[in-house]
Amino acid sequence: MDSALIKQIAQQLGFDACGIARVDRVNDEAMKRYHEWLASGKNGCMDWAQNHQAIRENPELLLEGARSVIVVAMNYYPHVFQPDSAPQFAYYAYGRDYHEVMKQRLWKLGEAIERETGHASRACVDSAPLRERYWAQRAGVGFIGWNNQLIIPGKGSYFFLGVLVTNLELEPDEPCLDHCLQCRACEKTCPSGALRCGETVDARRCLSCLTIEHKGDLPEWVKDVIGNRVYGCDECQKCCPHNRDAVGNTTPEFQPKPELLALTRDDILSMTQEQFSNIFSHSAVKRAKLAGLQRNASIIHNS
Ligand code: SF4
Ligand code: SF4
């Protein structure tokens, strides 16, 4: 089983991109940047970012005898959109939770490897302390833009990433050496000043982190910049010229429920737990819980 066959199977499983890197320690520059991000406190409420530093630096600790890192990507750019006046959900949350969708497909890829070669694999979709964007760049899938997103050349950044770490030795791809256009549109468009081009995101000011991850009351200043973003924020992607030609995804699981597209602010504010579960039971939105969503809805306004 070689790299070409792995990529063929990945494509058959519905992945839009696939690249392979050799297992190695994460390079010093990337780890230094990460440690500086933590030391500055910019990880904000993402306390988990401080855990498992040794694994974060060395994927071999995730799977004994690991030889290759297979990185896959799936498009989540929507075909249909909420009305502009509706409380806005980040595009990635329109459909079924990508963790579920991608993991099941990665497990199938791992099973194929085991069946053909007897080698073990471990699937990770935001579920292990792995530097996914770093490995995506190493595996030739894309580059990290000034908006801190992984950008696939010619396709953009509306992609979920998943990783399969495997004991199978595979021919690696060349790292992606492209870089973003450095136009600064993302920095200028960010509603809350969380982005400075060339630097890491300040999660303490990022509306995506605040509306999804933050527990308890939001800082007062958020009211002035939240607009009608009730769950997440896509501004630093929407403005990026690399996303100009984004194409709507065709994955059935990622298509939005009509109930989500039709939601109003009043619907959210009066929503019962049962209604929330019906709409969001297999959605990433359940991460914020009903209380978090209603907290956000209580302060949004049309910008
Ligand atoms: S908006 Fe401009 S600076 Fe920001 S990531 Fe895109 S190309 Fe780079
Ligand atoms: S997600 Fe929104 S708030 Fe966060 S950095 Fe991007 S534009 Fe700024």
Structure, described:
The protein is of the alpha+beta class and 303 residues long. It has one domain (1-303). The protein has 13 helices and 8 strands. The strands form 3 sheets. The protein has a 4-stranded antiparallel β-sheet, sandwiched between helices. A hairpin with a 5-residue loop joins strand 5 and strand 6. The protein starts with a helix and ends in a 6-residue tail after the last helix. The model has no long low-confidence stretch (mean pLDDT 92). One iron/sulfur cluster (SF4) binds next to helix 7 and helix 9.
Residue share in β-strands? 5-15%
Count of the domains:
1
Q: Briefly note the structural class of the backbone.
A: alpha+beta
Number of helices: 13
Q: Whole-number radius of gyration?
A: 19 Å
**The biggest beta sheet, please?**
4 strands, antiparallel
Mean pLDDT: 92
End-to-end Cα distance: 53 Å
Order of helices and strands: HEHHEEHEHEEEHHHEHHHHH
Q: Which shape, going by the Cα principal axes?
A: globular
Identify the notable features of this structure and list them briefly.
303 residues, alpha+beta, four-stranded antiparallel β-sheet, 33% helix, two-stranded parallel ribbon, 12% strand, binds iron/sulfur cluster
Short structural summary:
The chain is α+β, with helices and mostly antiparallel strands.
